């Protein structure tokens, strides 16, 4: 397993390339913009894209999806259905996606070559926020940040649900890698010790 990160889009979203180099397969996590750069980075890995995985539906995490779909029409996109909205106002934050968009939710898995990505429902930042686990790595989206957590004042947000989601992540066994949607990476042990939101959630 090899993971490459790029900062993309208008507000510096972390986009990750999750690669099984043996199978030469790659998933793109949260392509929030700069689709050309993302596609070029995928090409550099020598792996073929097999999935676009979204931790939630906000524009800064989905902004590059349409252009990547145009380049890779056979590659499915995964997004939790709770982050799909019909009203025009909410769609400004959750822009609609088209093409092969598949729902995934708690307990689902996605294969990336020989790797297995497991879906953990972690609402709070949005109703459909998920954390994606592959081995000892957590792609946390905007749920858990280094020293902080995601905002809960957007449509579908809930501080109560955020605290429950943080508690769930904090109770996972082991010192897992934390790869957030913004800012620097961390580890779960570090966040258990120093993150005031996670500490509060685990009381």
TrEMBL record:
Keywords: Hydrolase, Metal-binding, Zinc. Its cofactor is Zn(2+). SMART domains: Lactamase_B. InterPro entries: MBL_Glyoxalase_II, Metallo-B-lactamas, RibonucZ/Hydroxyglut_hydro. The keyword Nuclease does not apply. It comes from the Bacteria. Coiled coil: none annotated. The keyword Nucleotide-binding does not apply. Residues 12-182 form the Metallo-beta-lactamase domain. PANTHER family: HYDROXYACYLGLUTATHIONE HYDROLASE GLOC. This is MBL fold metallo-hydrolase.
């Amino acid at each position: 397993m090899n993971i490459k990160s790029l900062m993309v889009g208008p507000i510096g979203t972390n986009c990750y390339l999750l690669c099984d180099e043996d199978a030469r397969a790659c998933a793109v996590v949260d392509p929030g913009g700069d689709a050309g750069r993302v596609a070029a980075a995928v090409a550099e890995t020598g792996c073929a894209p097999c999935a676009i995985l979204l931790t939630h539906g906000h524009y800064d995490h989905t902004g590059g999806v349409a252009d990547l779909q145009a380049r890779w029409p056979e590659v499915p996109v995964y997004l939790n259905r709770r982050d799909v909205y019909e009203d025009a106002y909410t769609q400004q934050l959750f822009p609609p996606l088209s093409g092969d968009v598949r729902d995934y939710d708690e307990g689902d898995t996605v294969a990336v070559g020989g790797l297995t990505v497991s879906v953990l429902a972690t609402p709070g930042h949005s109703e459909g926020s998920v954390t994606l686990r592959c081995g000892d790595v957590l792609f946390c989206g905007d749920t858990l940040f280094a020293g902080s957590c995601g905002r809960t004042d957007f449509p579908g947000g809930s501080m109560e649900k955020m605290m429950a989601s943080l508690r769930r992540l904090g109770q996972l066994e082991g010192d897992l890698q934390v790869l957030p949607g913004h800012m620097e990476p961390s580890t779960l042990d570090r966040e258990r010790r120093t993150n005031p939101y996670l500490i509060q959630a685990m009381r």
